[in-house]
Amino acid sequence: MKIYLDSDFRCHLEDDGTMKAVETDVFDGKCKEFIEGYRFVPNGETWIRDDGVIFVGEMISPAENFIILDKLQKQYEMYEISHLKELGELIEEIYNDDVEVINNV
Amino acid sequence: MSLTFNMVGGGGGKLKDTDAVLVVAAPTGSTVTATKGGTTLTPTMWVKAADNTLDCAIFSIPASQFDSTTPWTVTATLGTQTASDTVLITTNKEYEAELSYSLYLYDNGDLRTAVTGGWSYAAFLNTSNYSAGTLNTAYNGTTCYLSASGTTKQISAVTGNKIDVTNYNTLYIEVSDYIFAGSGYRHLYLVSSRGSVSSPAAQVQIDSTGTFSIDVSSITGSYYIGLYLNSGSAGSCAIGFTKMYLVR
User: Fold this and answer.
1) What is the end-to-end Cα distance of chain A in Å, rounded?
2) For chain B, which terminal residue's Cβ has fewer other Cβ atoms within 10 angstroms, N or C?
3) Burial A66-79 (b: 16+ CB within 10 A, else e)
4) Which of A9, A54, A59 is best to mutate for the B interface (most B CBs within 10 A)?
């Protein structure tokens, strides 16, 4: 997926016109809130934390409380699972209806 | 822990036989205090540890302060870093404490087993497709060395215990050996499960010898910490590290 990085290497799903685009599969399956709580320092780039510690890419770490990000992601996954289940039941209902029609032709 | 230190200068006669002596080792340049209740003590004297990497603050604790229930809190400060520990002082003998701003997970052949639970291989790719490489946790006595000869091999070095990173800001790894071609896994991860590198809390890609670091300042709780490699189709690979440590 494509993500966008601001000047502090914070991740975004939309470019405000100033950001750098990066292609990565690290966040595949992750919800918007999770992704945008992360920092992604690309290979060859350097991020300096407020206390002066230097991090060299490719380094990916949460910029927000990871416990909260993880909970948001788990909620997202439960939502997706419940919706997939509903979709699956709907598809099965349609299939069964079609099968009935075909059989009655 | 037994400290060996070199006396610097004369004794000065500041320690009494009836006193307890509290020796607190701290990284060079630190300010060290000992506190109990409303009492804060500064060192009676300083000595250098024999390896010259630590300064030892010597505190004289009078008999009137001996207490079997309330410990002394010793604190070291250097810049923005602090570390503390507690020591119960009950009689006139020598007590020791060592304060460090770093938590070592691997140190030149020392697996730091009391903290890490040891280092071992944990498969993270389908073992029917990827066979195991070789892990030598004390290569040449100093290096944790992961190697995978040939293609479609996987190898990892993962802590046996989950490590609580709550009070630390940075995870460092010092890489001494690096052989890698291709684009397979060569990452240091913080993960919830030893056998999985999906959904890590944080990671850094190892691309050479040198020091690499992960920002863990927004991560609380405990995680397995592991270095994971796979040779993929590109051929053999190897990574060795001599140190891994967390810093406040």
Assistant:
1) 47
2) N
3) beebbebbeebeee
4) A59
pTM tops 0.80, yes or no: no
Give contacts of B205 with chain A, Cβ < 8 Å.
Answer: 43, 57-59
Tell me the mean pLDDT in the region A30-36.
Answer: 96
> How far is the C-alpha of B15 from the C-alpha of A8, rounded, in Å?
54
Render pLDDT for B71-85 as a digit per residue (tens, 0 to 9). Answer: 999 999 988 788 889
The DSSP element (H or E) to which A62 belongs, if any, is strand A59-62
Distance between CA atoms of residues B239 and B187, nearest Å: 10
CB contact B205 to A (< 8 Å): yes
For residue B36, which amino acid is it?
A: K
Interface predicted TM-score (ipTM): 0.82
